[in-house]
Amino acid sequence: MKRYLFIILLVGISHGQTIAVTSEGKIVNLNDDGTWSYQKDKERGDIPSESIWTTEYFVDDFGDPTNDGYINTFLEGKFSNSATTNSSLGVKFIITNEKVSIKLYEYNRNHAVSGQIATKSYDIALKHNGTRVKSFYGNNYSDRVTLEDKDSKRLISLFKKGGNFNFKIEEVGRYTSSIYKFEIPNASGFNEEWDKIISEEERERIERKKREDERAKRQKKEENQKQELIKNTKPIEVFNSKKFVIVVKQININGKSTFYAELENLTNRNYKSVWFTLNAKYTSDNSLYTERVSFKKVNSKSKSSFELHTGQELKDINFKFLKNKYF
User: Quick one: three-class SS letters along the chain?
Assistant: First the structure.
């Protein structure tokens, strides 16, 4: 292995092997004979690192810190446009519990790129650990590029996973061609700072929202399963008159039986409701099942339906007409 001169930012021990992190963020093994080699992904375990993230707090009108915190870091990169190529760039992240904003300092000057006079829009390409992910989108209305809500949440989720991030931010405009590139070699430590800015109330809200989303996802899955079963179940005709025809289907999901009935209106009349008595027997023990049911908003030459959670499968199903109401 050839010997090279490189700047070592951090030295540590991992699984008995002396390791180092170079100024480019590369991890190398340092051998006893003075040689070195790049560390493979599978060798990387407990790699010592200092977090690039810090937590700061917004201030009120008097300049005093509030309880509203944000995660902050400053990076360097390069930018290019029609007037320059690969010039120095300063990048500052401002991350709250809802939003990700990025301030871009061309030539590393004190003033960030402004969108106050005219809003600037940006496409944000990203590679996470070498793999390209779905692009993000942001707008600059003041002095920072702020990602849309869904994109902010998605990027925060990626930061929580740590790893390497390569950004390419391109201004979207007819007469503009500014491109900003920068890298986060190691995003570890983000979770620790994230915990600092999330209040107990906010944490409970996030957990509650997570449970609600999981329940909604489960309900949607069950509804799709139900509709698929209804579609593939053969209907049985149980009532036929000059005015109406009724067919029924019974489906079983997770051991629970659902009774689905559909009425077809053969007339030219519109009905507010059509009432029947449903008589049947439980298949399991022949016990009687009776229910007063109605079909709502039955328009002329159309169909209306309802469903009942009967718990068990029914047999000997019979509908007896009771009354109907007109609009």
Answer: CCCCCCCEEEEEEECCEEEEEECCCCEEEECCCCCEEECCHHHCCCCCCCCCCEEEEEECCCCCEEEEEEEEEEEEEEEECCCCCCEEEEEEEEECCCCEEEEEEECCCCCCCCCCCCCEEEEEEEEECCEECCCEEEEECCCCEEECHHHHHHHHHHHHHCCCEEEEEEEECCCCCCEEEEEECCCCCHHHHHHHHCCHHHHHHHHHHHHHHHHHHHHHHHHHHHHHHHHHCCCEEEEECCCEEEEEEEEEECCEEEEEEEEEECCCCCEEEEEEEEEEEECCCCCEEEEEEEEEEECCCCEEEEEEEEECCEEEEEEEEEEEEEC
Residue 318: strand pairing partners: 279
Short-list 162, 145, 51, CA closest to 93: 145
Query: 246 pLDDT band (50/70/90 cuts)?
Result: very high
Question: Would you state the torsion angle of the CA atoms of residues 66, 70, 73, 77, taken in this order, to the nearest 10 degrees?
Answer: -120
Q: What is d(CA 181, CA 267) in angstroms, rounded to the nearest whole number? A: 69
Separation between Cα atoms, residue 72 and residue 55, nearest integer Å: 6
CA distances, 67 to each of 101, 198, 199, 279, 320 (Å): 19, 10, 9, 64, 67
For 74-98, what is each residue's pLDDT tens digit? 999 999 998 999 999 999 999 998 8
Residues 6 or more apart from 83 whose CB is under 8 A from it? none
Distance CA 124, CA 143 (A): 17
**The pLDDT of residue 7 is above 70:** no
218 has a pLDDT exceeding 80: yes
Predicted model pTM: 0.52
Residue whose pair of structure tokens reads 């003033």 in the numeric block? 111
| 26 phi-psi bin (left φ>0, alpha ψ -120 to 50, beta other) | beta
For residues 121 and 115, what is the distance between their CA atoms, to the nearest angstrom? 9
